[in-house]
Structures are given as C-alpha cells and as structure tokens.
Design goal:
Spore Coat Polysaccharide Biosynthesis Protein SpsA, Chain A, seven-stranded mixed β-sheet, about 220 residues
Length: about 220
Amino acid sequence: MKPYLLFSARQTSSRVAQKLIRPLMGADCLFSIYLRRLKRLLATGWFCDGAVALCPADKHLWTMAEQAGAPVLERDLASIEKGAPLNVIFGVLKSVEADNVLWVNACQPFLPDSRIFTASQHPRCTAYTTRSFVPVETPSSEVRSDKFKTRVYANSFHGFARRELLSSGQYWPNEKPELVPVPPAQCIDADEELDMEIIAALMRYRLSGEVNLSW
C-alpha cells in the first residue's frame, strides 16, 4: 500500500533564526525548495496522497505554500511548540486515512528524490549515514581518518504506522525500522549557522557549474 507523504514546517528555530525562509541564492530558500519537492514527488503517483503540515500562525510559510499551489494540512499551535511529544507534533495525521506515513525533513535540500522513493518501499524506516570518528583513547599510531566508521541517524526521513504513532507517541513502538543509507553529502542538515553557509555556498557552486558534486 502506498504511504502518505508528509512534509511539515514551523517558522521558529531555537538554533538558526528563520532558517526555512532565509534567502540562500536569489529568492530561493529551504522552504521554497521543500515545496517544489513536495509537488514533484506527489506528481509521480508514488504516494497515495500528501501535504505540508503548517500552522496558520506561521503566516509567511502559509502564504508561500498557497502561492506555490502546494496542498496544506492545518496543524495547531501545540504541534509547533518546542519539546512537544510526537503524537502532538503529528496530531494533524488524525485527519488522514492512510495506514503508513513517510515524513521528509525540510532542512536537507541535497537529499535526492531517489532516496525518498527507496524509503517509501518500507512501512517502517529511517535514514542513517556514516561518519568517521577516532576516539581520543586511540594510540596515535592508529589515528587515521578512515580507521573508525560509525553509523549515525541522519534524520532525513521517517516511515511509520500512523495509528501506532498517534497512540504511543513513538515512531516505532513495536519493531525496529529498516535503515536506509544516505551518503553524508546528501544529508547536509541546516542545524547550525555554519550549515546554512555551507548549503548556500554549495548551491552557488552547483549553479555556476564550477564543481561537479555528482549528486
């Protein structure tokens, strides 16, 4: 059964102010890229339906979604408060009839659609990437950047059963999710100010054709 494609956004951010609507390159911003992705993915017929969940209080985001012609699910104020439990954050899903949901992060603009299509084939899934870390306890003779590789959650997307999440407040209360790999270059996340600078710089380079990032 095809999953429901859920996008979500809120205007406030505790770490990076107004990150979704901050200009990255010309008039483009993370949220405009996100809206184009939503419309593009829904047009494929790969999903049963989908929308971006927004609170009317986030007027700028709401207006942008309307102007883009993107489908919107109205979420309440409680769902955008910091620290809200998952079944409150995703309370908007009470109005959705689909059994399975695939949520996609708004802050990873280089995530390819192909990764999302792969994730959609698993009712319960999440993304991981690989990082190289060297513990300080390691003898100096063994310190090499490629010696230790660790898998870490990438937070690119989560696939989950709608009713399970709403009743438990957890993504996967009864079984472990399928782990879908995402290369580090594809899951650069706008978590800090430096991340925003990196994303903006990479977008400029990709547009100019000065470098080929092979993404």
